[in-house]
Design goal:
Strand order of the largest sheet: 1-3-2-6-7-8-9
Oligomer: single chain
CATH superfamily: Alpha/Beta hydrolase fold, catalytic domain
Helix content: 25-40%
CATH architecture: 3-Layer(aba) Sandwich
Structural class: alpha/beta
Amino acid sequence: MSEGLLERVEVGPRNADASVIWLHGLGADGHDFEPIVPQLGLGPTPRVHFVFPHAPHRPVTVNGGYVMRAWFDVIAIRIGAPQDEVGIREAARHIEALIEAEIANGIPSQRIVLAGFSQGGAIALHAALRYIQPLAGVLALSTFLPLADTLEDERHPANQQIPIFLAHGTYDPVVPLDLAELSRQRLIEHDYAVQWMTYPMEHNVHPLEIVDISAWLKGVLSAE
């Protein structure tokens, strides 16, 4: 493992021609989405290397200060709730380092997807839209756009055209649907191309969602 990088689970060939960096949700770890790889049915080409990092441990306010794996502290999850800007930016730096590691291993930035669930999806969105080299896409599941008010000044033109897949459960009791819909609207207002999908589920992943994720990944990682 490279010095300074987050601990992580890696799946798929190291001599790949594309990478997916996938961030777990609050309280989980990098193993959480490891089983989804064979379910995606991506086939022998493109050769995709998956990176599932473990978030650091930290106290989480919304859970009474209990220490767990978290990309940032959560005070509340609703429209207008205060956000842990310091933690969000720190997490984004960790993800940028993982992107740089994939590039150093021979994967062009244009062949790297950032993905995440819940607060992992929030970090994927935050990091991707500000990254200084073009990425293949960002996959954000059951999540929201963090620090939305800073996007206008901080977004990078390298990723203005990045494909964005947003998916949410219509019965999500954790990240309210209205917060996700507002995030989608903010992205559209900034001229991002957003594919928006909803599923009859709570705060989890739906079988039909996996089918749609597979199709989307095949599209953004198709041979150029």
